[in-house]
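pinned: reference chain
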Amino acid sequence: MKRFWLFALLSASALAQPSDKTAQPEGQFESLFHQFDYDRKAPLDIREEHREERGGAFITDLSYASPGGGRVPAFLVIPSGHGPFAVILFGHWMMPGSPFRNRKEFLDEALLLAHSGAASLLTDAPLVRPGFVEENQGLRAQAQNAESSRQQVIDFRRGVDLLTARRDIDPTRIAYVGHSYNAHIGGILSAVEKRIGSFVLMAGVFSDQEFVFESASPELKAFRDRTGEKALRDFFKKYAFDDPIHFVGRSAPASIFLQFGSDDKGITEAFARHYYDLFSEPKKIAFYKAGHALNSQARLDRVQRLTERLRLSPVDAEAIARVPDLK
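pinned: its structure tokens
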């Protein structure tokens, strides 16, 4: 989740029912699609800061050039051996105050999956990179976050370039895992980055405009009243490229697995099932007795889904259970 409505969503006690709005027509989609163009021939300028071995896998702390400016901090986890390895791109949540609102969120999972033959790239989103200065003035803040989301989508595409340039990576076995804010990013990626064949999207919102206007959250109602309907409608029109509803209906042929918490105060089951309906087949949805952070059963299902889709060796269930739950 993201922007002001992230915080309203996390504190919401009730949400309206979703509508049956659909995505953009084809011509408009093409215009939105090209918002994520970039120069694939530009140098990645990879800089390695540190490398260590941990539990039979190698973790490299590196960065690469972002087409949006600055650099993308990342961990690259490579299994021991010669490959070719499947690969997973991991995108963290943005929970305020969490020590894992960065690339550390999925590091333990990446190390587990390395034992099954998967490499991983875990990046920091622009919003948590060194030097980021947050705007806090109304729609100017929302515009900043929309531009940061566009940069994040392109930075993940550049991450695919980085990985597929390696001789030890199998370019036919690529997956993406995104939580909350980066589930939203994954919804867009599912349409614009067809080299990724499998997605696991955790506790995400995939129709921003619909959510903002139809939520019954008191915080969001106050935000709507304060900002004004016309200003909000104009904003969503200008930044339509940042609303996944325009993209998720074009997720095929990628496989989609959506995970939601039944105790998540922000996303009701009705909204979650509505999001599921928006995606193309093949797809799957699962609910867990958990909040926005999800739980160990979701982690087990996620790892098993990835091992199946990427044709990896099974991961020991007890080892998965030992990974600490996210708070």
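why pinned: The chain has a mean pLDDT of 92. DSSP finds eleven helices and nine strands in the chain.
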